[in-house]
Specification:
The protein is an alpha/beta fold. The protein has one domain (8-188, 227-259): Rossmann fold (3-Layer(aba) Sandwich). The chain is 48% helix and 15% strand. The chain has 8 helices and 7 strands, in the order βαβαβαβαβαβαααβ. The protein has helices spanning 17-28, 40-52, 67-81, 105-133, 154-174, 192-205, 209-218, 228-239, and strands at residues 8-12, 32-37, 57-61, 86-89, 136-141, 179-186, 250-253. A 7-stranded parallel sheet has the order 3-2-1-4-5-6-7, sandwiched between helices. α1 packs across α8 and α6 (192-205) packs across α7 (209-218). It is globular.
Amino acid sequence: MADFAGKVVQITGAASGFGALAAAEFARAGAQLLLSDVNEAGLMEVARNLESLGCEVQADVLSVADDAAMAAHVGVGVKRFGRLDIALNNAGIGNGMQRLHEIPLADYDRVMEINAKGVFIGMRHQIPVMLEQGAGAILNTASAAGLVGSGQLSAYAASKHAVIGMTKAAADEVARKGIRVNAICPSFASTPMVETMGDMMGERHGISREDAYARIAARVPMRRVAEPMEVVQAMLWIVSDANTFMTGQAISIDGGLTAV
């Protein structure tokens, strides 16, 4: 395990899924944590559990699409901890599986607001802090759907393609300033988002939850979904001091989905 002792790590979408698991792993590795989510109950439970283990945690309830709230959140974290070493812009939502022409415009707007605008707002406030420090690492959670055409996921895919584009642009802008910016691109994993997707698919097609999950897994060459820890361990390595020459990359953790 990488050593993150003395590092300050910001994680959005920290109440569940990759965010909650990453928070626990960073805490085990000695980091101080700046956490946020819209799910107050889930976020506070995560924070309490980590604090009981001796981790210093600043947890704030906010939407990543709220620019003023994110500015205040980052400001509070820097005031409390003195710096910001690592940022995981992880918060995101899906909209189920629908053909493009069936997606309500309001659903498209909401997905883009959280998944794309939320990452933009996060980096908008993280980068100035890191520029002043002369160092930092940012990891944006994109998706395999941001790398390939993803039928029945067009709104989600559009948002994740945007995340990868912003990641590459930001990486180019700050590479000479000691800041690395990368994206991680998981495919389907055992997270609440994929569970919800499976439930919606089951309802739409009149099949059981188990059959829906089997259809999702069948799209992956390895014929299974990822365990969340398989993705989180990659997250930790990407932002660690063991990985100092990677920037502007979109790293697939996808069971071979984008290889075919």
